[in-house]
Design brief:
Blueprint: E1 3-11, H1 28-48, E2 51-56, E3 63-65, E4 74-76, E5 86-94, H2 98-109, E6 123-127
Antiparallel strand pairs: 1-5, 1-6, 2-5, 3-4
Length: 136
């Protein structure tokens, strides 16, 4: 069965369907409803046997690249942090088909935002390569 990564973005996705403020400006009960929904999705995926992993990420990010054979890694917060892509978290799922991955992504997109209204958030769906890049 193919595995898919369902990526949630803080920034870097297509234009929002319904603009909402950043989560740090939501009412506490809206944040709790949102997180409860995300835990529900993970529980549902466990029940169906489709769950592989799920993680939420902080907004802090550091870019790292090789600095050379005798140098420390080079790090930066990015050339344009206000416009850079920032992943909020993900679900890794093991499903029967691409169509099922899309169905799950659409469900995750319905997560509640401020006032309980669905976010209609864009979810980035990526198939996990089954072998090395040269094999695929």
């Amino acid at each position: 069965m193919p595995r898919y990564l369902l990526l949630k973005h803080y920034r870097g996705a297509p234009e929002q369907h319904r603009p909402v403020p950043p989560m740090d400006r939501w009412a506490p009960e809206d944040v709790e409803a949102h997180m409860t929904f995300l835990r529900h999705v993970a529980d549902m995926l466990r029940e169906t046997g489709e769950y592989v992993d799920a993680q939420a990420l902080t907004t802090a990010q550091t870019w790292v690249r090789y600095g050379g054979p005798d140098a420390a890694p080079v790090t930066t917060d990015g050339p344009h942090p206000e416009t850079s892509d920032l992943v909020a978290g993900w679900y890794m799922v093991d499903v029967d088909s691409y169509e099922r991955a899309l169905e799950l992504a659409a469900y995750v997109s319905s997560e509640p935002g401020p006032g309980g209204t669905p976010l209609y958030e864009w979810i980035d769906v990526r198939e996990v390569m089954s072998g090395t890049p040269a094999d695929d």
